[in-house]
Write a structure and sequence with these properties.
The chain contains 13 helices and 14 strands. By secondary structure, the protein is of the alpha/beta class. Helix 3 links the parallel strand 2 and strand 3.
């Protein structure tokens, strides 16, 4: 797989920070070319340098994914300079941490434009180029919050729920067409990304992910695996994601009450919020500071570097065969013992 992947051209939106940056690093070791789409010039430059240092061609493109024309133009540039796009990863996002009553309509709209329409624009640009070739893969980076809303993140949750519905609808259409283009989605757990230091927040304390928290490299491995195996409609990453989705399916009302009681405090640290903190809703976070935020946030000491659930999920076929074999062996031993 690694040799074959070296021929791939990969596009990643939101490639300067968090999960997008970690995905770019993963592909830098295995792709022929990686196009990095994001708004921040400082982060784009740093991400491109990392990709090139790994021996892969890098194409940084300043793009606001909320603008369909910019995304389409970026896709044209990628194909002109790197070649036909094989994989498109939609990972760009922004958010507002605040009760819904404290989110202005234009702020809510902006989150939806980036987190939903940004995915729509990226998918449209990819499909326009992949469909005539009848090949290619599109990966939507999702979240457990695509199924389960939580307090303080109404705009983000609304967008992720909508992406989930969009993904399902598009997948049905491609299956109906018998298309060779594949779409899949990866539902992530809480991830230690820089977003918690740069999203617009009106909370009294510094925001944090709902524990347990995973490092972005775990998410990146899940995304790359999904792109390599896009036949599945979606992948769940992290035991907490599985537990959340199952609990929401079985007892959503009870989960409402639990999150109402615990969800607000659980998304804040004990540190008082900085009133002058950077916010990336309208402009890239590195615009004023010139800082490269990288992939990881400030919660290294609380974050997991592995997910055994993900490991098992990626090997469910082999594990199922092993379980059947073990059961057959146990039955054979039991039968022999009865005969003795």
């Amino acid at each position: 797989m690694r040799t074959a992947a070296r021929s791939q051209v990969v596009v990643i939106t939101g490639a300067t920070g968090g999960v997008g940056r970690a995905v770019a690093r993963e592909y830098a070791r295995r792709a022929r070319g990686v196009a990095l789409l994001a708004r921040g010039g400082t982060g784009l430059k740093a991400a491109a340098e990392e990709v090139r240092a790994a021996g892969c061609a890098a194409l940084p493109v300043e793009v606001d994914v909320a603008d369909e024309e910019q995304v389409s133009d970026a896709a044209d540039e990628v194909e002109e300079r790197l070649g036909p796009i094989d994989v498109w990863v939609n990972a760009a996002f922004t958010s507002v941490f605040a009760p819904f009553s404290k989110i202005a309509p234009e702020e809510f709209r902006r989150v939806v434009e980036v987190d939903l329409l940004g995915f729509v624009h990226g998918t449209h640009a990819a499909l326009e180029r992949m469909r005539p070739r009848d090949r290619g893969t599109i990966v939507q980076v999702g979240s457990a919050l695509a199924y389960r809303g939580v307090p303080l993140q109404s705009a983000y949750c609304a967008s992720k729920h909508a992406v989930q519905g969009f993904h399902e609808s598009l997948r049905c259409e491609l299956l109906h067409e018998g298309s060779g283009v594949r779409v899949t989605m990866v539902q992530l757990p809480a991830v230690n990304t820089p977003q918690f230091s740069w999203v617009l927040s009106r909370l009294p304390k510094h925001p944090q992910p709902l524990p347990p928290i995973f490092q972005p490299e775990v998410a990146a491995r899940a995304v790359v695996h999904a792109a390599d195996h896009p036949q599945r409609r979606e992948y769940w990453c992290g035991g907490s994601t599985v537990a959340t989705l199952i609990a929401n399916a079985l007892a959503p009302g009870a989960l409402d009450r639990y999150l109402a009681r615990c969800g607000v405090a659980a998304q804040q640290t004990d540190v008082v919020a900085d009133p002058d903190r950077t916010a990336n809703l309208w402009a890239p976070a590195d615009g004023d500071s010139g800082r490269d935020y990288g992939a990881r946030g400030v919660f290294d000491d609380k974050s997991k570097t592995r997910s055994w659930q993900l490991w098992a999920s990626q090997r469910h076929g082999a594990l199922a065969l092993a379980a059947v074999g073990a059961a057959a062996l146990a039955a054979a031993v039991a039968s022999r013992q009865r005969r003795l």
